[in-house]
Amino acid sequence: MIQNKKNDMHFPQVESEENKQGEDIEVDEENLPSQAMATHEHIRQEGEKELERDVWALLWSAIAAGLSMSASLMAKGIFHAELGHFSGSMLIESIGYTFGFIIVIMAHQQLFTENTITPVLSVMQKPTANNLYLLLRLWAVVLLGNLIGTTIAAWAFGYMPVFDPSIKLAFHDIGMKVMENTPTQMFAKAVVSGWIVATMVWMLPSAGNAKILVILLMTWLIAVADTTHIVVGTIEVLYLVFTGALPWQSFIWPFAIPTLLGNICGGTFIFALLSHAQIRMDMQKDHSASVEHRDGKH
Question: What is the distance between the alpha carbons of residues 280 and 110, in angstroms, rounded to a whole number?
Answer without folding.
Answer: 28
